[in-house]
């Protein structure tokens, strides 16, 4: 019996389907793809999701770099891009609630220090037994340490834990540590995985 489920947020429980980054870029005179290219460049993102810089400083750095590369419009684009908090997937949330009746459910997310305020805004802050944020742990997926730290904090061996993520790389890393891992593609597939795991 698996004693805990560790589940990712973005791409699993939170969707950004309504996010119109291309529209924002056009509105502010930025080249297509420039905002996400700058924001999610590993050398810029990793310090933010491992707690070395704040979310506010990360976003300010993105605005500054966009302005340097493309002129005016960067700061306004980042401000507009930063406002939404995404949407919770109702089907996945239903599965999370059902899982909490049979095992500990922990959120394990690569996130900035904005995670907890986003969870409150999404009304998800009471949906988990534990929240593990990479910004608080100081290490991010797919580093193996993030999984061992989370399992240890739960007082469980990796083999006692399930893990769900939309990143194949993160799923592979979790499996190497010993967690029973599932690559998320749909709520229906997740439901089948959870049923198989008991």
TrEMBL record:
UniProt KW keywords: Hydrolase
Any matching Pfam family: Hydrolase
A GO molecular function assigned to this protein is: hydrolase activity
Superkingdom of the source? Bacteria
Q: PANTHER family per the record?
A: ALPHA-D-GLUCOSE 1-PHOSPHATE PHOSPHATASE, FLAVIN MONONUCLEOTIDE HYDROLASE 1, CHLOROPLATIC
User: What name appears for this protein in its UniProt entry?
Assistant: Putative hydrolase of the HAD superfamily
Organism for this UniProt entry: Blastococcus aurantiacus
């Amino acid at each position: 019996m698996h004693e805990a489920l560790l589940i990712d947020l973005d791409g699993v429980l939170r969707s950004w389907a309504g996010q119109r980054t291309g529209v924002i870029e056009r509105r502010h005179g930025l080249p297509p793809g420039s905002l996400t290219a700058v924001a999610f460049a590993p050398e810029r993102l990793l310090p933010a999701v491992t707690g070395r810089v704040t979310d506010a400083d990360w976003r300010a750095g993105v605005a500054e770099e966009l302005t340097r590369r493309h002129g005016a419009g960067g700061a306004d684009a980042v401000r507009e891009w930063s406002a939404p908090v995404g949407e919770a997937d109702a089907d996945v949330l239903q599965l999370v609630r059902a899982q909490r009746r049979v095992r500990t459910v922990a959120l394990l997310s690569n996130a900035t220090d904005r995670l907890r305020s986003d969870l409150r805004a999404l009304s998800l802050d009471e949906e988990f037994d534990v929240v593990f944020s990479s910004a608080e742990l100081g290490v991010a997926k797919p580093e193996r340490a993030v999984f061992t730290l989370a399992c240890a904090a739960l007082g469980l061996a990796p083999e006692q834990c399930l893990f769900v993520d939309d990143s194949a790389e993160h799923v592979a890393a979790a499996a190497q540590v010993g967690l029973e891992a599932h690559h998320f593609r749909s709520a229906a597939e997740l439901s089948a995985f959870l049923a198989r795991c008991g």
